[in-house]
UniProtKB/TrEMBL annotation:
It comes from Henriciella barbarensis. InterPro entries: RutC-like_sf, YjgF/YER057c/UK114. This is RidA family protein.
Length: 130
């Protein structure tokens, strides 16, 4: 019998409006929806891309923890940046958070839904069964 699907929410109004969950846990897998740089501690969107990337990883860490996963469980990451000129700005942040984990990764340059958003990060985590 398969394990029940568990939905994780950050309480964002976008989750209900757009019909998604911040994360979905299915068995040993956790799929975290794209996270933008909104800083929930200060309820603001930082202006620079590096600060937005830090806020993304803070949210991802909290969500994974709530789901029973660790950052080290991340096996796949997709970065979406709004401008290729931002790559050098965010690279040190990405390296600091993912450098030891080394998940399979993709980086895409594309528009995001709000002009102040400069980066979105989506991850998939796998936890080996006990």
């Amino acid at each position: 019998m398969s394990e029940a699907r568990r939905l994780i929410s950050t309480g964002s109004p976008f989750e209900k409006a757009f019909g998604y969950s911040r994360a979905v846990v299915q068995g040993d897998w956790c799929f975290v929806a794209g996270v933008t740089g909104y800083d929930y501690a200060s309820m603001t969107m930082p202006e620079d891309a590096a600060a937005q990337a830090e806020a993304c990883f803070a949210t991802i860490g909290r969500v994974l923890d709530e789901a029973g996963f660790a950052m080290s469980d991340i096996v796949r990451v997709q970065y979406t940046l709004t401008d290729r000129a931002l790559v050098d700005e965010v690279a040190p942040v990405l390296g600091r958070h993912m450098g030891n984990i080394r998940p399979a990764a993709t980086m895409v340059i594309a528009g995001l839904i709000s002009p102040e958003m400069k980066i979105e990060i989506e991850v998939t985590a796998f936890r080996a069964g006990a």
